[in-house]
């Protein structure tokens, strides 16, 4: 099993250098504990614990760690998994010594002096059934087949990663659903290009679907295309969906979008995710 690492979710929304900041006043409920972790089967668990800040406080270095926090990770409300603090790219994580197991429920509890204790719980979704990845040099189309599971509500995240053969450098590509091939999912066409597509299975529950993705620019260089499809729990889906909605709404116009959290008395996400990656060689 490949090493799987999920970075701090709260830092994923990068600000562009030319962005104009506007001061907005939103109700602040006081400092709270923020917990961020995405739990992947067959991978150790990384937990980021920080302190919240008011919406009008800008901190480009990220939220501050909470010194002396007590973090507990349990599986199925019984087994306590040992944690070790590790510094990764200058940020502190509580890292489990054991890998997550499909079928178990995981709970994170955090307490710290002067702050209300928090908890977050989630399960792990089954792996997405994906196959037949395809892409060609000179084309802007990337495709794959997804077999959705019947008799259940399922949630997915789709991303495309390109690694250049000459430089070894890689990046997530901007894309959209190709309207010529996925006309039964018209609600996703108007959103323009994105580097991550979050969706549920309402349009194709229990059916096989051939996804055709249209990249913003044609694939011109040799290398590897990685089609990444992640199955999400309902908690993770709601978190990603509201995070995207907040990004799309912006901060200067329109109503404020509150990002979903399943962390009781705090903020952040304790979410299950199950990722499968398919690699296509581009000669």
Overview of the structural elements:
With 283 residues, this protein is mainly beta. It is globular. A hairpin with a 3-residue loop joins strand 3 (70-75) and strand 4 (79-81). The model is unreliable at 1-24 (pLDDT under 50). It has two domains: 1-8 and 27-124, Immunoglobulin-like (Sandwich); 129-231 and 277-282, Immunoglobulin-like. The strands form three sheets. Strands 1, 2, 5, 6, 11, 12, 14, 16 and 18 form a nine-stranded mixed sheet that branches. A five-stranded antiparallel sheet has the order 4-3-7-8-17, with no helix packed on it. It contains one helix and 18 strands.
Notable features of this structure?
283 residues, mainly beta, Immunoglobulin-like, 2 domains, nine-stranded mixed beta sheet, five-stranded antiparallel beta sheet, disordered N terminus
Portion in strands? 35-45%
CATH third-tier fold name of the largest domain: Immunoglobulin-like
For the sheet with most strands, the description reads: 9 strands, mixed
Structural class: mainly beta
**pLDDT averaged over residues:** 85
Whole-number count of domains: 2
InterPro entries: DUF4249
Protein name: DUF4249 domain-containing protein
Organism: Chitinophaga ginsengisegetis
Pfam families: DUF4249 (PF14054)
Quick gist of this model?
The chain is mainly β and 283 residues long. It folds into 2 domains: 1-8 and 27-124, Sandwich (Immunoglobulin-like); 129-231 and 277-282, Immunoglobulin-like, CATH 2.60.40.
Question: Topology of this structure?
Answer:
Elements: E1 33-39, E2 44-51, E3 70-75, E4 79-81, E5 83-88, E6 91-99, E7 106-112, E8 115-122, E9 129-135, E10 141-147, E11 155-164, E12 170-172, E13 175-177, E14 197-200, E15 208-215, E16 223-232, H1 234-249, E17 263-264, E18 267-282
């Amino acid at each position: 099993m490949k090493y799987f690492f999920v970075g701090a979710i709260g830092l994923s929304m990068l600000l562009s250098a030319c962005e104009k900041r506007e001061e907005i006043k939103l109700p602040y409920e006081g400092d709270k504990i923020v917990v961020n972790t995405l739990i992947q089967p067959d991978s150790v668990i990384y937990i980021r614990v920080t302190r919240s800040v008011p919406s009008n406080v800008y901190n480009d270095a990220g939220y501050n760690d909470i010194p002396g926090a007590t973090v507990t990770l349990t599986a199925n409300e019984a087994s306590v998994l040992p944690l070790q603090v590790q510094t990764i790219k200058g940020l502190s994580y509580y890292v489990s010594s054991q890998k997550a197991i499909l079928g178990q429920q995981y709970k994170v509890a955090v307490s710290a002096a002067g702050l209300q204790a928090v908890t977050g719980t989630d399960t792990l979704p089954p792996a997405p059934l994906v196959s037949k990845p395809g892409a060609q040099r000179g084309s802007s189309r990337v495709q794959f087949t997804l077999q959705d599971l019947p008799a259940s509500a399922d949630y997915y995240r789709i991303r495309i990663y390109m690694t250049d053969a000459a430089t070894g450098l890689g990046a997530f590509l901007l894309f959209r659903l190709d309207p010529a091939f996925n006309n039964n999912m018209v609600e996703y066409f108007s959103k323009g290009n994105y580097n991550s597509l979050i969706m549920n299975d309402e349009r194709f529950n229990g059916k096989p679907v051939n996804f055709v993705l249209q990249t913003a620019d044609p694939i011109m260089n040799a290398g590897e295309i990685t089609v990444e499809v992640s199955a999400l729990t309902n908690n993770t889906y709601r978190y990603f969906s509201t995070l995207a909605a907040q990004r799309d709404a912006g901060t200067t116009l329109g109503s404020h979008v509150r990002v979903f959290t399943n962390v009781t008395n705090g903020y952040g996400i304790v979410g299950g995710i199950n990722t499968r990656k398919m690699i296509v060689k581009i000669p």
